[in-house]
Design goal:
There is one protein chain. The strands form two sheets. A five-stranded mixed beta sheet has the order 3-2-1-4-5, with helices on both faces. Strands 6-7 form a two-stranded parallel ribbon. The chain is of the alpha/beta class. The chain starts with a strand and ends with a strand. α2 links the parallel β4 and β5.
């Protein structure tokens, strides 16, 4: 399985999640198998400006099946649903923390507001 996480920097497993999905500078792609992280690849966002649906389609083309993000707009959420991508919102932390929490079943989606955040610890 591939997990996509929008991040603000290119520091591999130590990359920090971006506040806004569509404006992220980079996307981390985490390959998992069962409950283990196999690899982490961080790529520069190929869409400095984008039309609706381009980034969800890009993530799907990278074989992502899950997107972990802090916040995402309604339109992007609709694209994710059409593409059958699971979306977890309200997350914060590093790629390593979030991927570990997800594979261990300790990551849940919450509506993102500045006061309600879920850290990647179960």
């Amino acid at each position: 399985m591939i997990i996509a996480i929008p991040v603000i920097d290119d520091k591999g497993e130590n990359s920090t999640i971006s506040e806004h999905f569509g404006r992220a500078q980079y996307y981390a792609f985490v390959e998992t198998e069962e409950d283990e992280v196999k690899s982490i690849n961080v790529e520069k966002n190929p869409f400095s400006s984008h039309d609706p649906g381009e980034i969800p389609n890009y993530l799907k083309s990278k074989e992502a099946s899950v997107v972990i993000t802090q916040g995402v707009g309604r339109r992007a959420r609709a694209y994710f649903e059409r593409l059958k991508l699971e979306v977890i919102t309200g997350a914060y932390g590093t790629v390593k923390e979030l991927a570990k929490a997800y594979v261990n079943g300790g990551l849940r989606s919450v509506d993102y507001t500045p006061k309600e955040k879920f850290h990647g610890h179960g």
